[in-house]
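User: Assemble these into one structure.

Assistant: Restating your components, then the assembled model:
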Amino acid sequence: MARFCDFNVPYSENTENLHQIVEMAIKLGYESVALNCCVTPGTKKGQAAVPSPPKPVELSQATLAPLMAQRKTFQQLTRLTAIIETNEQKYKLNPNNPPVNTYDILAVQPLNMKMFEAACHDLEVDIISLDMTQKLPFLLKLTPIKRAIARGIRFEIVYAPAIRDSTLRRYIISNATDLMTFCKGKNIILSSQAEKAIELRGPHDVANLGVLFGMNQAQAKDAVSVNCRAVLLHAETRGSAVGVISIERIMKQTPGVISVERIPPASADKRTLEKDSGEDPPGKKPKMTAQKKIK
Amino acid sequence: MKRIVSKGDAPYYYLKVLLEFEDKTMAVDVLTFRTVIMKAMMSMYGEVGAAVQIDILKYEDKTISAILRVAGSNMVKLWGALTMLSYYDEKPCAFRVHQVSPFLMAFAASSRQLLLHTE
């Protein structure tokens, strides 16, 4: 079974409080938390747009002992949530930029329709987080959400504000059920955003909240376990997508002799060709030309 | 030995819950405990929610933990209401739901804290 994750523990300088939250998460049965840094890129001039990722919380052996007894490990990740409103802020979020790519998970919180569509269609992010504690500033539409699901992006619902205050609860329930009509319960993660340890809830309780939001039992459980793992895997592939693929067709011509025929790529990309020829073992090249002449 | 076959939704669900206050010295008696649950249901579902029949089968005031019984159709409601509770008398608190099962017998062991003895 996939481990239980809480991918939204707000990072603060108050280490005492943060420590309490992480300890409570372990006590409740989470095996993975992500420390979340929330930024609005490009608001302060002369400063780096994105701060460097927070250091993991140091935990004592005594807190980890119950996990160790069950042969489990505890994982601490870092997550960046960028609040974006303009195109300029969007470009600051290039996943190849040094401070951005040091985070494990990348999330965006779009503030208007244009940015929401951009996030669903072409931004390289793992999570789209909407501020559900107020009336959404735009209408959710099926097309961008479908596209985001096809690209493997997850939508986030945070539950701690709902526990804190009854007005926020009303908004969160209405927005979450709204989102659920489009997602049909798929591609959703539930996370806490707890500011105090007492606001955190156990993974099974959170899964039950998912049922209240309109998912079925299995989907709700996935929202705190399997979908979180999928976010992590998505984050890993995001970093490794800078590469070249070459295809080789291997044909058997005469028994005992295997010849290699190259398929030129559809678009004659110079880099691809160069890399291909660079990888060629020097002994094989004459054989290939010889065969082409025979044809 | 008698064999029991259960089909469809169970008539009752049992929940093993623990009420946790931020202030660890709080003492709660069974009537207050009942009020806490009522208030939680009330704030989440209003009068209709408060009318749901919830039985406290066993209560332990040392640890403020109890075993509740509720009709199967109201289980999700009760669980959700307990999860959403955050304050009682302006004191921060939280319900920890340890186990949920359609059978009381299941509380004899907890599958969430199973230990594998591999040595």
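Residues 126 and 153 of chain A are 5 Å apart (CA to CA).
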